[in-house]
Design goal:
single chain; 380 residues; alpha+beta; Naphthalene 1,2-dioxygenase Alpha Subunit, Chain A, domain 1; 2 domains; six-stranded antiparallel beta sheet; four-stranded antiparallel beta sheet; 16 strands; globular
Length: 380
Amino acid sequence: MTTTPITPSLLATLPGRYYTDPDVFRQEQEHVFESLWCCAVRSADLDRPGAFRTVQVGRESVVITRTRTGELRAFLNVCRHRGARLCTEEAGEVRRTLQCPYHAWTYDLDGKLIAAPNLIKMPDVDRVAYGLIKVDLREWLGYTWVCLADEPPSFEDTVVRAAVERLGDAAAIEHYGTENLALGKRISYDVRANWKLIVENFMECYHCATIHPELTEVLPEFADGYAAQYYVGHGAEFGDDIQGFTVDGSAGFGRLPAVSTEQDRRYYAITVKPTVFVNLLPDHVILHRMFPLSEDRTVVECDWLYAPDVVRSGADLSKSVELFHRVNAQDFAACERTQPAMASRAYREGGVLVPSEHHIGIFHAWLVERLGSAQAGPVP
């Protein structure tokens, strides 16, 4: 198949095939997910040597583990002998080594090959050269980010810059101390929709008055479809009678220590392309990580993060969690309602955007540019 390059207008969407075509998704895997920094795991989840987690990044399974000396390492989850999946569980813990369950080739937590049946009789096997394939890794906001590219793009320019551009102040996101927060709740959503529909949904509030009654009660300006979260430095303000970012507007928890007076009683949303949403509240942070699995299926893992003493105290987090859990459920249901229509002849040429959705057009232009080299000729 050959795809035809398009130049997106800020008034038009992508054609429907971009949401349904397996070849387009394969191009995205190569030119987006396997080429950019992706947020993989919360670093604190790997809290001891030997703890590991596997995540899907593009077409690759990546295993992330903590070494005996406390560093985090990421590797392709592939044994160098015959290619078997090394770690078959989504998460777990090993004592000292990672061992392939097929032929027992064994690697230390730094990825070096250290043992295999009859290895001593195979002097030509270089234990370093046949170690696990390393994946570049960075930590930011308390999360581990990985990049599969041979030469990863600048982390500061492609990841940190998203927060700086949105907040207008390089230090503003640091006020929330996300790396020091504790996990209060994690919910995983299996969404039967293309990952781009989820990104687009997060980028606009034109739908808020229609499907988010609880959210617009707390953030009244969202009821007008105003994309306040995309104007530099602007956070949507709580309603006058709202005490906290909770499902019924009741009080939440104390303001995080370094959150400024200007940031109090405001909600800020940041999109870090390709697959991360960061939601900043005075008393907690909500972070979404997306794992696109196919052209019509995306797993979204959502973490609610609070001050450690709030979590340790056993405080009731339910009203705080419930607000954005409802928002997530409402959004993902809308995306699932939209996905089937992407294959309709009615959407063959795409749809239209209203002015408050202009950031979706910018996102589409960014994506088409990323896929540009792939679309110049036949899909590999």
